[in-house]
Amino acid sequence: MAQVCGNCQGEVVVENVDDGSFVKIPVRVMEMTAGSGCAVEEDGLVALETCTVQSGDFKRIRRLGRMQGDLTEVCVQREPEELTRQTKPLCYDFVTYSAGACLLEIHRFPSLNSVGRIRIGISLDDGPIRIAESFSNDEWRGNWKKNVLHNVDRLYLNLPVEKPGRHRISVWAVNRYFAFSRMVLYTGPRKENSLAGIRGTQPLPAECNLTDWCEHFYGSCRLKPRPVYYSEVPGGGRQPDSLAVSCRVVQAKEYAAQVEPGWYLQRGQSVFAEEEGVVRIDAAAVLAQSAYAWCESGESAALFMEEGIVAGAEKPGELWRHCGSESFGRSGLAMYIRKPVRSRQTETAPGLHYRFQCEGGPYTLWMLSKFNVQGEDSYGIGVDDKTLPQEELYGNGGLWRYEAEQIYRWVPAARMQLSAGEHVLHVYALASGMRYDRFYLTKGMELPPTDEAWGRQRYGNAGNITESGAEGYEKWYLPMIESAMRKYAL
């Protein structure tokens, strides 16, 4: 192998052998004068993983770190004024190639201390010791719920790096049981990440068929498909919350056929046409960014501060991200916005747009979506550049109920009168976090089909409902839809 000098630049070319397209990735070979185990700035950040404990004030808990690695925990109790230069901190050396105001993000293990405080001391080089404190020290305090969902409590400090070169962050023990898995120093704009930083070569794991091994060790166990949830009220209005489960629950009999991600790109290359009185739309078809399915970041979406972080301006469509969903046998994709966004005006909010053809008449728009916490559930609906009033939407444009958190649920989002011909459906995200999976526009009074029935051409039995489920549907759900239709004179 040829010798490569340090501090050289070049590029790695990744080619798609199917169509000949390629992507060039700039790389730099850095001379590691910083020494072994010293983190180095890359792509606008420095990732500081749990290191060997050199202080009696800390202990290392193996394999308990978030995503990977170990956990470092404080094992003494001090007040900030008791910290002196004679106290031995935990030290992290790193090298930066830039200077200026940097943001330090601490990935704290989300432990609780309901009768005390959760603090840690941080200093850069010979600078003063600054205190980072978590206010999520008990259930429902601070960002406790978000921390539990993400398995991390992110704490932030602004640190000024005066010049490029080698630096040291010192971590000072304050409160017992404060534990963290890593720190990330952003020399540029903050990025969502779970990176491990530069740690030498990273060989691929040995090939192993885990499925066969698990079946041999544990025995064969085939889980049923996840149940399908339908909202309890077909009309508008926000209903009072309760601990009782009010969703209609239907158990599918089998998993649906799976699809490849490229299927969504093909699906977005043609108009969504009405078949048998329904129009079926898979939300991730907007990945095609075509004349038939596209997404936009919104013109004046109000980006707000969360934990001191401000989301930057986005180009059209770049605010939206795709993620895995439960559709197509758990191989499907859903669309969502990850950055903290809240919009006060529906017309200028980030949107998903779909061009469809219909035969005309009264339609019910069902929406399959998921949100994790209250505040992510706000949405808007429009047709042909005209937004529907929020009071005409299901839940007045809000889906939150305690029982509806963290599940994909079908809701009859809106009812609309459409003329025959081509239209454009607009779905607006008034807040970030909610995941949009499917839309089902129907003239009938049936429930949207379950996953394995989605690809069928006929939906007369509302999916794959068991005999007892169909019986309950006729007795319970159908009269509610008919009542709503009489109310709106449709």
Rg over alpha carbons: 27 Å
- Give start-end ranges of low-pLDDT stretches: 196-202, 300-313, 457-481, 483-490
Figure out the total of helices.
5
Supply the CATH superfamily name of the largest domain: Galactose-binding domain-like
Calculate the terminal CA-CA distance, rounded to whole Å: 75 Å
Given this structure, which CATH class of the largest domain is correct? Mainly Beta
Shape: elongated
The largest sheet, given as strand count, sense and whether it forms a barrel, is: 6 strands, antiparallel
Helices and strands: which structural class?
A: mainly beta
Whole-number tally of structural domains:
2
For the secondary structure, the number of strands is 29
Reported by name, the CATH topology of the largest domain is Jelly Rolls
Q: Specify the helix fraction band.
A: under 10%
Overview of the structural elements:
This protein has 490 residues and is mainly β. It has 2 domains: 35-186, Jelly Rolls; 228-487, Sandwich (Jelly Rolls), CATH 2.60.120.260. 10% of the residues lie in helices and 34% in strands. The chain contains 5 helices and 29 strands. Strands 4, 5, 6, 8, 11 and 13 form a 6-stranded antiparallel beta sheet that branches. A 6-stranded mixed beta sheet has the order 15-14-27-24-29-17, with no helix packed on it. Residues 196-202, 300-313, 457-481 and 483-490 have low confidence and may be disordered.
